[in-house]
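hiii so um. not sure if this is the right channel but i have a protein structure encoded as tokens and i wanna go backwards to a sequence. like what aa goes where. can anyone help
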């Protein structure tokens, strides 16, 4: 699952991620001590990408209708198929693979 958005003035990246995750999916998680899995920089902007593990029943999520069309479980190949058919954010295959490695130290990618 993914949740995305932008920080409000004065918010940390972790606070913004927690707020967006709750707004879009109804999941509460405190990211205060979670570093981003990776940070992508492009054109003077950056995106922090977080990954965390949690037990989650998709039927119990509270979806923000204006932002979320559908939720489902998918492996790396499934996400890549969704990219091809246009139903997922058009990330490069190598970027998608980053979500399925064991999280370690933060990484920085330059687009």
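sure thing!! here u go:
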């Amino acid at each position: 699952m993914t949740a995305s958005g932008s920080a409000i003035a004065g918010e940390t990246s972790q606070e913004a991620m927690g707020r967006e995750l709750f707004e879009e999916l109804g999941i509460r998680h405190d990211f205060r001590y979670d570093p981003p899995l990776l940070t992508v920089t492009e054109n003077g902007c950056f995106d922090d990408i977080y990954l965390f593990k949690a037990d989650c029943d998709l039927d119990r999520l509270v979806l923000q209708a204006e932002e979320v069309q559908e939720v489902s479980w998918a492996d790396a190949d499934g996400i890549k198929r969704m990219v091809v058919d246009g139903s997922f954010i058009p990330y490069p295959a190598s970027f998608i693979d980053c979500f399925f490695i064991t999280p370690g130290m933060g990484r920085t990618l330059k687009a």
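oh and The first strand starts at residue 38 and ends at 42.
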